[in-house]
C-alpha cells in the first residue's frame, strides 16, 4: 500500500514537471513570435471606438494638393461623426517643470524612456532645417509657403523638445549614413506625401542634388494615361544607397478594379487587405511609415467609385458599414497583418503615424472655416498626456510590434502652421487648414521618426 502511494506521488510530481516544461516552451515560442496569431480579423470581433470618443474624425477632406476642389465631391457630403466638444483639450504647459527642455541646468532623466509624445515647442533660431526657397527640387509649389504671399514665417523657428529627454539634432549626412543601404517608405494620403517631401528636403538640406537618382520605375511609379501624377515617387542617394519613396494609398486598402477593361469601372475597396504595393515590396523596405484618416467619407467613396469589400465579397456586415467603423477595421487589419509579417522581415521597422489634426475655426472648409492666425502657440506650448489623442491608432498598434508615431497632440498646438488662405490653388473664400506649410510641422514628425531609428 505504501509503495503504491509513493509511486502515485512520483507520478504526480512527474506530471507537474512535464507541465512546467510545456508552459516554459509555450512562453519561449510566444517570445520568438512563432505562435503569434496571424488569422484574419473578423468584423464581428473587432472592438473599435466611436468618433464620439475621438476628436479627430474628419468629415470632409481635400484632394492631394488642391484642397478646395475636394476632388469634385458630390454634395452634400455625408458626415461621419462629430467632434466632441466636451472632450478634454490638450493640457497646455504654461509653467513647465525645469527638466522639460533641459533648461535651468537640469539634466534630462536617463532612467526614463524618451516619450516623444509629451514635451513642448521651444523657439530655435537655427530653424528651419532647409529653405522653402531652395528646396524646389522636391517640394511641391503649393506647399512651399515661402513662394506664396504669406509674410509671417515665425512658425518656421520652433523645435519640439520632448519631456525629460533630448531629441538628437537631425543632420542630413549623418542620417543618410545611418540609412546606408536602406529604403524608407511612406505609404498613405497627402499628409504622408507631405512627410515624404519634408524628408527629401531634410536629407538634402534643401539643396539641389543632381546626383540623386529617380528610381520610381523600379517600384512601378509611372504616369498612367490621363493621370495628373504617378501613384508614387522614389529617389536614391548613390553615395549611401539610401532610397526614400512614397506610395499613394489614401485609405490603406487594397484597390482592385471590378472590370479592368472598363476605364469607368468601380473598384473593390478591400478593407481586410493591405495595399498590393506594400505586400509586393515589403521585403525590400527597411523603414515603413503608414497613415490614413482624411479620406474616409461617403463623398470620397462615391467620387472614386470605391465599394467596400470584406473577404473578397461586397461588405454585408452592418458592424462595419458605417465609415468610421470601416476605417477603424482597416487600420486594425493592416496593422495586424504587418505585425504578422515582421518576424519574417527582421530588418524592417514599421510605424503607424497618428492622424494630423485639422484647424478649421468658426466653420468647416466650405463654410468659412479659417486658420489664418499669425500667433504661434497661442493656445499653449506643451503637451502632457498619458495616452494618444488618436485613440484609434493607439488601439490598433497596442500589443503589436508596429510602433505608433504619435504626432497628433503636438501638432494640435500649431494652428498657425497651415497653408491657410495662401494656397496658390485656393478657391476664393476657402482656406486650407489641413495641409501644412513646408518647412514646418511635418519636419518635426520626421525628426521624431529619425530619433526612433537610433
Please report the total strand number as a whole number: 16
Poorly predicted sequence stretches spanning 5 or more consecutive residues: 29-39, 51-111
Per DSSP, the total helix count is 9
Calculate the terminal CA-CA distance, rounded to whole Å: 67 Å
Shape: globular
Give the neighbour order of strands across the main sheet: 4-5-6-3-9-12-14
* Biggest sheet statistics: 7 strands, mixed
Helices and strands, in order, run as: HEEHEHEEEEEHEHEEHEEHEHEEH
Into which percent range does the helicity of residues fall?
A: 10-25%
Average of pLDDT: 82
* Quaternary structure classification: single chain
Question: Which structural class do you get from the secondary structure elements?
Answer: alpha/beta
Beta-strand content bin: 15-25%
How much is the radius of gyration in Å?
24 Å
Protein name: Trichome birefringence-like N-terminal domain-containing protein
Keywords: Disulfide bond, Glycoprotein, Golgi apparatus, Membrane, Signal-anchor, Transferase, Transmembrane, Transmembrane helix
Domain Trichome birefringence-like N-terminal: 112-166
InterPro entries: TBL (IPR029962), TBL_C (IPR026057), TBL_N (IPR025846)
Verbal overview:
This protein is α/β, with parallel strands linked by helices. Helices cover about 25% and strands about 15% of the residues. The protein has a 7-stranded mixed beta sheet, sandwiched between helices. It starts with a helix and ends with a helix. Its main location: Golgi.
Amino acid at each position: 500500500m505504501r509503495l503504491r502511494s509513493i509511486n502515485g506521488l512520483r507520478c504526480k510530481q512527474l506530471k507537474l514537471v512535464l507541465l512546467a516544461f510545456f508552459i516554459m516552451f509555450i512562453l519561449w515560442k510566444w517570445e520568438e513570435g512563432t505562435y503569434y496569431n496571424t488569422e484574419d480579423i473578423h468584423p464581428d470581433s473587432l472592438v473599435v471606438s466611436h468618433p464620439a470618443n475621438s476628436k479627430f474624425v474628419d468629415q470632409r477632406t481635400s484632394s492631394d494638393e488642391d484642397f478646395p476642389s475636394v476632388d469634385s465631391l458630390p454634395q452634400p457630403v455625408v458626415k461621419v461623426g462629430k467632434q466632441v466638444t466636451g472632450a478634454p483639450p490638450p493640457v497646455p504647459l504654461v509653467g513647465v517643470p525645469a527638466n522639460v527642455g533641459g533648461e535651468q541646468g537640469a539634466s534630462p532623466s536617463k532612467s526614463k524612456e524618451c516619450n516623444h509624445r509629451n514635451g513642448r515647442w521651444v523657439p530655435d533660431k537655427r530653424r528651419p532645417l532647409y529653405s522653402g526657397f531652395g528646396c524646389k527640387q522636391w517640394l511641391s509649389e503649393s506647399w512651399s509657403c515661402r513662394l506664396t504671399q504669406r509674410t509671417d514665417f515665425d512658425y518656421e523657428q520652433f523645435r519640439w523638445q520632448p519631456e525629460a529627454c533630448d531629441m538628437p539634432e537631425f543632420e542630413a549626412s549623418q542620417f543618410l549614413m545611418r540609412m546606408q543601404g536602406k529604403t524608407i517608405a511612406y505609404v498613405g494620403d497627402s499628409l504622408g506625401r507631405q512627410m515624404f517631401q519634408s524628408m527629401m528636403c531634410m536629407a538634402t538640406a534643401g539643396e539641389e542634388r543632381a546626383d540623386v537618382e529617380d528610381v520610381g520605375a523600379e517600384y512601378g511609379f509611372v504616369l498612367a494615361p490621363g493621370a495628373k501624377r504617378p501613384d508614387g515617387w522614389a529617389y536614391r542617394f548613390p553615395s549611401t544607397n539610401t532610397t526614400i519613396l512614397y506610395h499613394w494609398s489614401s485609405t490603406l486598402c487594397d484597390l482592385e478594379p471590378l472590370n479592368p477593361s472598363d476605364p469607368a469601372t468601380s473598384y473593390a475597396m478591400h478593407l481586410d487587405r493591405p495595399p498590393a504595393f506594400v505586400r509586393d515590396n515589403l521585403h525590400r523596405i527597411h523603414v515603413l511609415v503608414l497613415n490614413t484618416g482624411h479620406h474616409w467619407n461617403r463623398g470620397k467613396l462615391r467620387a472614386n467609385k470605391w465599394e467596400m469589400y470584406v473577404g473578397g465579397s461586397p461588405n454585408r456586415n452592418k458592424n462595419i458599414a458605417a465609415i468610421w467603423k470601416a476605417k477603424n477595421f482597416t487600420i486594425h487589419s493592416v496593422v495586424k497583418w504587418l505585425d504578422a509579417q515582421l518576424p519574417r522581415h527582421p530588418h524592417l521597422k514599421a510605424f503607424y503615424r497618428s492622424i494630423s489634426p485639422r484647424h478649421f475655426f468658426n466653420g468647416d472648409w466650405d463654410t468659412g472655416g479659417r486658420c489664418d492666425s499669425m500667433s504661434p502657440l497661442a493656445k499653449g506650448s506643451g503637451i502632457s498626456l498619458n495616452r494618444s489623442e488618436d485613440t484609434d491608432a493607439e488601439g490598433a498598434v497596442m500589443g503589436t510590434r508596429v510602433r505608433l508615431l504619435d504626432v497628433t497632440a503636438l501638432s494640435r498646438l500649431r494652428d498657425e502652421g497651415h497653408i491657410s488662405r495662401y494656397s496658390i490653388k485656393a478657391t476664393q473664400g476657402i482656406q486650407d487648414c489641413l495641409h501644412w506649410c513646408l518647412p514646418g510641422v511635418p519636419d518635426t514628425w520626421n525628426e521624431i521618426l529619425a530619433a526612433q531609428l537610433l
